[in-house]
Amino acid sequence: MLKPILENIVNNNLLHAKWLNTLSYMENAGARKISASEHKEEVDLIVLKHAAEEHRHAYYLKKQLDKLEGNLCRTYTAEELLTPGHTRFYLNALDIAVCRYLKQEFGLTGSALKFGAYLFVTYAIEVRADELYPVYQDVLTGAGSKVNVKSIILEEEGHLEEMINQLKRFSPEWERHAAVVVAIEQKMFDDWILNLGAAVA
How many domains does the chain have? Predict the structure, then answer.
């Protein structure tokens, strides 16, 4: 379902610009979420690295817009994003659902809850990125587009490994909990893709 939607997007300059901008927005939102989850004093080097890399991905995707004609999508206003409502609430909705689950399962509160949510939400988003970006790159290559996301694909693979290492330290049963979180994200992604497909049809 994802590939034909992306082919439709990449074949239309304005839609493609909005898609790149939407991805940039989501990477930026992710970076801001990571920073917001930081402990005031005990900041892990990995957390700083992730926030920096997500910010860089947001910047890189925004810069890719220069490869498309028309000087498009300079801001993150609703009219310059695809499915802006779903896009804007995606990470927040996932964060809230994961916090609810972790409270229930681990009885976490405060900074411990924030950190736990950071681990599981980031893991789910990295799993998603590992699926989405290679499909997008295939479509870009097939269309002979100047845009490319190969560097992001490599970094996202590294992120996933780092998240798994952190989750192993968080809980010996991390895989069971991660599966629940991935299922929550999958439902949100399916809704988002359904709306995206309708918006670009």
Answer: 1
